[in-house]
Write a structure and sequence with these properties.
single chain; 84 residues; mainly alpha; Arc Repressor Mutant, subunit A
């Protein structure tokens, strides 16, 4: 019916966001592997900063900086895709 919202719209939007996040993470992995690794360990694998530091051999301060810059890059990329 005209004017009726597609019942699959929310599902489709969620899938588009997931696909664009996956693409942004793959791009980060190829362009900034250290930042990707830091984000993957802390956010995707739910490791503590101490555990991630031990796993990578990178000190905690450098790891936090890598996470900060990686998230900043992801946020910038995704804001161009997920316009409100």
């Amino acid at each position: 019916m005209p004017g009726e919202i597609c019942p699959y719209r929310e599902f489709m939007q969620d899938n588009i966001k997931k696909a664009s996040l996956d693409a942004a993470l793959l791009e980060l992995k190829s362009k900034a592997p250290r930042r990707y690794e830091a984000i993957a360990l802390i956010y995707l694998q739910d490791k503590s900063c101490d555990d991630a530091s031990q796993a990578t051999g990178v000190n905690k301060g450098a790891l936090r900086v890598a996470v900060h810059h990686g998230l900043k890059r992801l946020r910038a990329k995704l804001q161009t895709i997920w316009k409100p």
